[in-house]
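Postdoc handover notes: sequence design on the structure in folder B. Input tokens:
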């Protein structure tokens, strides 16, 4: 069992020291391929560069190694560390995500059924000012009010509108790239 509050308390300061915002800390893969996944982003671009990922990975590894040496390892056993950007069809994990990505298509799964449903797909309307209720407009035009704390998972759906709203970090040098096999 992994204590995510403890892991967040260890990892968030490392991300913040680099000027990054922590998006998600997850542990998956079971016994066969245990993986600690850390997603972070630059607040201004909502993305990470490869160098950002490498630097954050080293910071987290150094911190976790120091805790292990002190006998305070928060994770039992061996695991793989994966640090990445949340990507274009990103998970929505923080209250601000639901406001920031309003107007885009999303999929939301609840921990338990609500009004006979557990899954909701549609246009993200946003989150109420207190941050307690997420609103999503389904394909039938019905707006659903879902308590933030009842949400199990949520993510954006890859659409042309989302692609247009996501600015690449840099396209410098893209015109100079050659495809493999071309002279």
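Designed sequence:
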């Amino acid at each position: 069992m992994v204590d995510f509050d403890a892991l967040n308390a260890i990892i968030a300061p490392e991300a913040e020291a680099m000027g990054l915002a922590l998006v998600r800390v997850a542990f998956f893969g079971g016994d066969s391929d245990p993986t600690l996944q850390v997603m972070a982003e630059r607040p201004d671009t909502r993305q990470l560069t490869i160098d950002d990922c490498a630097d954050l990975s080293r910071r987290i590894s150094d911190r976790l190694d120091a805790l292990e040496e002190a006998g305070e390892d928060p994770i039992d056993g061996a695991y793989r560390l994966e640090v990445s950007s949340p990507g274009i069809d990103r998970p929505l994990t923080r209250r601000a995500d639901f406001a920031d990505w309003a107007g885009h298509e999303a999929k939301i799964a609840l921990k338990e059924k609500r009004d006979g449903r557990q899954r909701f797909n549609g246009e993200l309307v946003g989150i109420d000012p207190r941050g307690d209720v997420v609103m999503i407009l389904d394909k039938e035009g019905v707006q659903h009010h879902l308590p933030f704390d009842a949400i199990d998972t949520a993510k954006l759906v890859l659409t042309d509108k989302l692609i247009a709203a996501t600015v690449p970090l840099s396209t410098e040098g893209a015109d100079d790239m050659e495809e493999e096999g071309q002279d």
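Context for whoever picks this up: The chain has a mean pLDDT of 90. Don't rerun without checking with the PI first.
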